[in-house]
């Protein structure tokens, strides 16, 4: 087997939410991400698919949600899942975030130290565990902050890491090495389950660079407040195909490439049950809307556009939060 092109890191993370308006309000206004795409779940066009990202929708910055409505049961975070999704924020910004969480009534915990970094754990309104991690953002950082609700010196700058909770970490750790991650250390923490510690795997980064592995026995259950899947960057079709072959040679069963309109995807369930995706960097969220207008309209990919009237009638109405500017008061 030839080695695949190493992945630079996480591409996007997709989660399950309940109420679409509450999901929009939290991720756009409270956390300050940009709604870069408002679309539908292609497997169930009566529900939305929201994509929140940096100002340009760069790879490694998009957190996406299926808000399945009030009837979807609450999930349970457990083994076989991404248990934590962490975002990069600029050094020194956690005071700002704690003040903001007080103001908005966000459920957050005390800061913790991990691998020499400061981490602020919180939960979104669906109970999804999130973390903000202070990092030194380089001047040439590939992410572009969105500053409608949160100032530049505090704005989220893409993913930091995901934490996998796994009943048997060894085969997954071997898979991560095949994908181009290198082991970067192990640290015990009272905040993690089990006593095997947390092992960090690092890709080339700098965005979405880390996957942390924690041994956890108790199984999870899919539902709102849980992660549906994590996607890793395979920038080109050739990168993706080489990674697909490498994954298949491990005995896993990756799908053929599927066109997701803003990127092209391959899916497979890894050894411990976590759904992984390999996603290309293009065509990108600005391939069907101008960069300035991202998220402004409901985008219906492919043949769904022919059914726009019917689809729009089935979707609940939502309002995208907009910052009130001084001009608007004039
Ligand atoms: Zn995906």
How would you describe the overall organization of this protein?
With 330 residues, the protein is α+β, with helices and mostly antiparallel strands. The chain has helices spanning 20-30, 94-104, 169-179, 237-249, 308-314, 326-329; strands spanning 10-17, 34-41, 44-53, 62-67, 81-90, 107-108, 112-114, 117-123, 129-135, 159-166, 182-187, 198-202, 210-215, 226-233, 258-259, 263-269, 275-283. Strands 5, 6, 7, 8, 9, 10, 11, 12 and 13 form a 9-stranded mixed sheet that branches. Strand 16 and strand 17 (275-283) form a beta hairpin. It is globular, with a radius of gyration of 19 Å. The chain binds zinc ion. Residues 12, 14, 229, 231, 277 line the site of zinc ion.
Can I get a quick summary?
By secondary structure, this protein is an alpha+beta fold. It is 17% helix and 34% strand. The chain is globular, with a radius of gyration of 19 Å.
Structural key phrases:
330 residues, alpha+beta, 17 strands, 17% helix, binds zinc ion
Give the proportion of residues in helices: 10-25%
Q: Describe the main β-sheet briefly.
A: 9 strands, mixed
Name the structural class. Answer: alpha+beta
How would you spell out the order of helices and strands? Answer: EHEEEEHEEEEEHEEEEHEEEHH
- Mean pLDDT level: 96
Q: Proportion of β residues?
A: 25-35%
* Model regions low in confidence, pLDDT < 50 over at least 5 residues: none
Tell me the Rg in angstroms. 19 Å
Number of helices: 6
Give the distinct bound molecules. Answer: zinc ion
DSSP strand tally: 17
**3D shape:** globular
What is the first-to-last residue Cα distance?
66 Å
